[in-house]
């Protein structure tokens, strides 16, 4: 028997999100008892997975364990497709792994291309939110859309800047039962200020 699911996959370390429809014989798809490990498809999604494999040398099970897969709707394929079409997917957002039909997409084939994509993934996370979680516009005018923020926060994560007094990074942090973010050991909330900029300002 085939089950049809409208689902959302979220990459926990960064909050990158994919939404799609999947047909499976697994009645537990998307739960902790799944046997169907499908997490997404499409050119942009596959490019993202290839970049992860190239950067971190992850196996397929390791990649799957870093994704949260949620079933948004189970029903007929037509019902799932109808609901999917109602979503306003932010295709151009750097955290969106969906690719609008007909849009061009490149596949990393050289080390240089992979390295460039790695830098792009890191750059995509910059300036997404400040330490209290409000939307912050980046230098190029980009911002997290309500749809993407909802997708990330529905997985009980929040995007926060953290630093270890050496470097800063913007990540999707898990939240506890009281709604507080869980900060990794050795890190604190907030973004490091540019010391060189401070010194030049003091002069």
Distance N to C terminus? 72 Å
Q: How many strands, which pairing sense, and closed or not: the largest β-sheet? A: 3 strands, antiparallel
**Radius of gyration based on Cα positions:** 18 Å
Structural class, from secondary structure content?
alpha+beta
The sequence of SSEs as H and E is EEHHEHHHEEEH
Task: Give the strand line-up of the largest sheet.
Answer: 2-1-3
Give the percentage of residues in beta strands: 15-25%
Q: How many DSSP H or I helices?
A: 6
Number of domains: 2
Q: List low-confidence stretches.
A: 102-110, 120-144, 195-203
Question: How much helix is in the residues?
Answer: 25-40%
The total of beta strands comes to: 6
Average of the residue pLDDT scores: 74
Give the CA-based shape.
globular
What does the secondary structure layout of this molecule look like, with pairings?
Elements: E1 3-11, E2 17-24, H1 43-56, H2 60-65, E3 67-75, H3 77-86, H4 111-124, H5 146-153, E4 157-163, E5 168-174, E6 188-189, H6 195-202
Antiparallel strand pairs: 1-2, 1-3, 4-5, 4-6
Helix pairs in contact: 1-4
How would you briefly describe this protein structure?
The protein is of the alpha+beta class. It contains 6 helices and 6 strands.
Brief descriptors of the model:
single chain; about 200 residues; 2 domains; three-stranded antiparallel sheet; about 20% strand; globular
Q: Overview of this structure, please?
A:
- This protein has 203 residues and is α+β, with helices and mostly antiparallel strands.
- The protein has 6 helices and 6 strands; from the N terminus they run E-E-H-H-E-H-H-H-E-E-E-H.
- It has helices at 43-56, 60-65, 77-86, 111-124, 146-153, 195-202, and strands spanning 3-11, 17-24, 67-75, 157-163, 168-174, 188-189.
- A 3-stranded antiparallel beta sheet has the order 2-1-3.
- Helix 1 (43-56) crosses helix 4.
- Residues 102-110, 120-144 and 195-203 have low confidence and may be disordered.
């Amino acid at each position: 028997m085939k089950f049809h699911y409208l689902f959302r996959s979220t990459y926990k370390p960064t909050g990158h999100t994919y939404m799609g429809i999947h047909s499976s014989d697994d009645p537990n798809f998307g739960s902790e008892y799944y046997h169907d490990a499908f997490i997404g498809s499409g050119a942009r999604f596959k490019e993202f997975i290839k970049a992860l494999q190239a950067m971190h040398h992850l196996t397929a099970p390791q990649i799957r364990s870093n994704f949260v897969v949620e079933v948004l709707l189970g029903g007929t394929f037509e019902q799932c497709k109808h609901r999917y079409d109602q979503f306003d997917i932010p295709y151009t957002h750097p955290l969106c792994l969906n690719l609008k039909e007909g849009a061009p997409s490149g596949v990393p084939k050289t080390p240089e291309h992979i390295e460039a994509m790695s830098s792009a993934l890191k750059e995509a996370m910059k300036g997404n939110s400040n330490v209290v979680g409000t939307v912050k516009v980046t230098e190029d005018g980009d911002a997290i859309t309500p749809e993407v923020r909802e997708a990330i926060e529905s997985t009980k994560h929040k995007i926060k800047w953290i630093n270890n007094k050496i470097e800063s990074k913007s990540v999707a942090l898990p939240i506890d039962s009281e709604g507080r973010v869980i900060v990794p050991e050795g890190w604190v909330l907030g973004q490091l200020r540019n010391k060189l900029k401070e010194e030049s300002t003091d002069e």
